[in-house]
Amino acid sequence: MANFSKKFQGDVFGRMWPAARAYRPQVFNYHMNKILAEAPDVHEYLSRYHNLKWMRCMFDTSIKCDYIKNNLAESFNGWIKDYKDLPPDELADTLRELVMKLHEKRRKIGMKLKGKIIPAIIQQIHNRTRGLKHLKVGKSGVASCEVRDTSKYNLRHVVKIDQSECTCLEWQHTGKPCEHALAFLLDRRNPRWEDYVHDYFSLEKFRATYAGEIEPLTDRSQWPHVQFPFDMEAPLDKKRGVGRPRKNRYKSFLKGGDGGPKKKKEPKQLGSKNRCKRCHILGHRQSTCPLNGPKPRYM
């Protein structure tokens, strides 16, 4: 979106996010048709520079992942920000050590957790069960129903609990019950949410992810010495810039970076915000109020 907003600007291009987040192809096509009607060049631009699958509706439902942002890359860059200026060999060894410690920490967490599904996922489901009064459930059987959304033009979806499916396709993509399925399951007494979450979020899978150990290494002085047939020298044609090397990444276009919208500075407020409790005038406190008079002098 940062590169897209540099070339295409306007209110209609705000539909790119709803199009990318849509689970159903019909919703994606609805928003994209609005965008293409405004600017036909968008199709050529996306086909040339973004020909990969960036919309949820095209994801494979077997991967149980619907991330469409690069938060993982940004988190990793922030994690290694203080080590980017190290030499390549020290950088690789430092990253190996960080990952080794992280795996051990996650391995200990996995051994302490109890239950079938990761507790954080169960907490997410509990949070989503609130505020579902706008969904009206019409049961057709023990494990199937139709759910009408009164807040979105009475849209209706079909839920099949025994197949872990909903026509909104969110359940199939994420592996976690959507709000339509939760509205149906809330009618049951003490539903076991673990039975309706995919094994992708199970403790067994979590522990298996961090079961392998990363081999520890000795310090650099004990590494084997290798004789290279040539000497690697620093490039001479590239001059180092003046000042301290930059560690923080450049801001994107949408966050006020190069050519992006600048954040307006709020005008500075003159004077104090304190209000006197005696005269109720801004600018001073009760202890310094002029109505107090001269302070008594103690001998």
Architecture blueprint of SSEs:
Layout (H helix, E strand, L loop, with lengths): L1 H6 L8 H6 L3 H14 L2 H9 L21 H9 L8 H25 L6 H10 L6 E5 L4 E6 L5 E6 L4 E2 L3 H5 L4 H7 L17 H7 L90
Antiparallel strand pairs: 1-2, 2-3, 3-4
**Count of helices?**
10
Spatial strand sequence of the major β-sheet: 1-2-3-4
- How far apart are the termini? 74 Å
Query: Considering DSSP H and I runs of 4 or more, what fraction of the residues is helical?
Result: 25-40%
Q: Sketch the topology as an H/E string, one letter per element.
A: HHHHHHHEEEEHHH
Task: Please mark out the parts with pLDDT under 50 across 5 or more consecutive residues, or reply none.
Answer: none
- Integer average pLDDT: 87
Largest sheet: number of strands, sense, barrel closure: 4 strands, antiparallel
Judging from the principal axes of the Cα atoms, what is the shape? Answer: extended
Structural class: alpha+beta
Portion in beta strands: 5-15%
Rg value: 29 Å
Number of strands: 4
Organism: Aegilops tauschii subsp. strangulata
Pfam families: SWIM (PF04434)
InterPro entries: Znf_PMZ, Znf_SWIM
Region (Disordered): 234-275
Features:
299 residues; alpha+beta; four-stranded antiparallel β-sheet; 10 helices; 6% strand
Short description:
The chain has 299 residues and is α+β, with helices and mostly antiparallel strands. It has helices at 2-7, 16-21, 25-38, 41-49, 71-79, 88-112, 119-128, 170-174, 179-185, 203-209, and strands at 135-139, 144-149, 155-160, 165-166.
